[in-house]
Amino acid sequence: SQTIHQWPATLVQPVGSPLSLECTVEGTSNPNLYWYRQAAGRGLQLLFYSIGIDQISSEVPQNLSASRPQDRQFILSSKKLLLSDSGFYLCAWSVAGQGRGSYGYTFGSGTRLTVV
Amino acid sequence: DQQVKQNSPSLSVQEGRISILNCDYTNSMFDYFLWYKKYPAEGPTFLISISSIKDKNEDGRFTVFLNKSAKHLSLHIVPSQPGDSAVYFCAVNYGGSQGNLIFGKGTKLSVKP
After folding, report:
1. Are A31 and A51 a contacting pair, CB within 8 Å?
2. Rounded Cα–Cα distance for residues B82 and A111 (Å)
3. End-to-end CA distance of chain B
4. pLDDT of residue A99
5. C-alpha dist (Å) from residue A74 to A65, A81, A90, A91
6. Which residues of B fall below an 8 Å CB-CB distance to A?
7. Where in B1-113 does DSSP place strands (E)?
8. Is-cis flag, bond preceding A61, omega within 30?
9. What is the Cα gyration radius of chain B?
């Protein structure tokens, strides 16, 4: 069966420090991968999605970047965190070409990032 | 501008009664609609979906209704249970090979014993 792992679960980082959040998927090949953020009082905002290795699309301009060095690995990064980067970050995957299907995405358990 | 709107940020219901969560969307070309449930500090989990060719889909205590003319989607939970207390997100699939989902802001449901 397919599983998605996301870590760390919580993170407190000072302003200006770098960030690296990692997400891996097991049990499937060539998944579509996504990074979402849920900020306080807001819904789920799509940050990045990837349909293959080194193929990253950004939905919104921001202080973050994403990389996909391996088929089932998706990394969210920042060189210098801002206070506004605080939020709950979620990684998700879907079957390639079938994200529109009845089950949509499978989400990881999320990372609570607090920038202080 | 929001393409998916959940206008009620919160809803409180008595155990055993019906919970109705609402969602409005703007684009009549959306063809797949989903509901996700999210507990605090966890990722959302898929709950139920409906295709635009249907107007109702039922799964146990959960029923989703789609009114295409009104561009309105609703989730009914009956009977509501305290374990249903969570944030519910409406999502629409706007197609493309990546099948990206657009989520509403969520409605926090509280079911009181």
Report:
1. no
2. 26
3. 38
4. 47
5. 11, 19, 11, 8
6. 6, 31-32, 34, 36, 41-46, 49, 51, 89, 91, 93, 95, 97-106
7. 4-5, 10-14, 19-25, 32-38, 45-51, 56-59, 62-67, 72-77, 86-93, 101-103, 107-112
8. no
9. 13
Closest CA to B41 of A110, A7, A41, A52: A110
- Contacts with B51 from chain A: Cβ below 8 Å: 102
Distance CA B72, CA B9 (A): 17
| Residue written as token pair 């205590």 | B61
Mean pLDDT of B23-47: 90
In the prediction, which pLDDT does A107 show? 93
Candidates B103, B107, B108, partner chain A, best to mutate (most A CBs within 10 A): B103
B44:A90 CB<8 A: yes
Per-residue model confidence (pLDDT) at position B96:
54
| Interval A48-94: pLDDT, tens | 989 899 999 887 767 899 999 999 999 999 999 999 999 999 999 98
